[in-house]
Amino acid sequence: MNNFGSLLRELRLNRDLTIEQLADSLNAKYGSKISKSSISRWENGEADPKLEFVRLLADFFKVPGQYFLGEGESERTGERKDIVTIAAHIDDDVTEEEMKDIKKYIEFIKSQRG
């Protein structure tokens, strides 16, 4: 089972962010005061974040908060992991119209299941 730190690192690297860039992005978006050393300690398993920071990270990476708990990890398929990876690549600069198109495409794909 993955721990919090490795899950956070995976999401950060999927977005091609350095630890410093992640800290800067979180602080700019949420007005938080998360240091790069805190993120490094979380990723290395040296410290656990406060619940409020877990919520910010989940929102930032567009994953459910339970993702960081590793819930359902044993049953998670490669497909589910791909969904989280794809969601991590949808940047904040996606327009509302583009997001509608993405959602429509997802619904189209689901409708083709049979």
From TrEMBL:
Keywords: DNA-binding. SMART domains: HTH_XRE. One of its GO terms (molecular function) is DNA binding. This is XRE family transcriptional regulator. InterPro entries: Cro/C1-type_HTH (IPR001387), Lambda_DNA-bd_dom_sf (IPR010982). The keyword Transcription regulation does not apply. It holds the Pfam family HTH_3. It comes from the Bacteria. The lineage of its organism: Bacteria, Bacillati, Bacillota, Bacilli, Bacillales. PROSITE patterns: HTH_CROC1 (PS50943). Residues 8-68 form the HTH cro/C1-type domain.
